Write the structure tokens for this entry.
Amino acid sequence: MHFWLLILFSVLLQIVLIPIIHADIGSISEVRGNGEVTRVDTTDKLLAELALDIFSNDDVRTGNGRMAIRFIDDTEIKLTEHSKVIIDTFVFDPNPAKSQLALSFIKGTGRFISSKTKSKYSFRIKRRE
């Protein structure tokens, strides 16, 4: 009996939690020139293209190009040429006090445009060497 409960629990965990953990948090809304996205669980580099889904912990880079990422709350980050950013954390909650965004700028420059909500929003931008 315990064996079947364990199997049932395992299946439910995969059905419920895995889509939440790997839910997209935004997408590429603008791309000019070249760029790439590397997922945390793979070394494959995805070519940056319009509407490519973005996930937490993605490594986003531009080469001779520019890229914009629009998050699901309409927050946007625009990256200039030769930039590298890691999307550390993104949590969206209808209650803005519970929402979070953390980015690590490794190199390059970018413009951050916060969402259109008028409530407090927690965000953190780190610079890594």
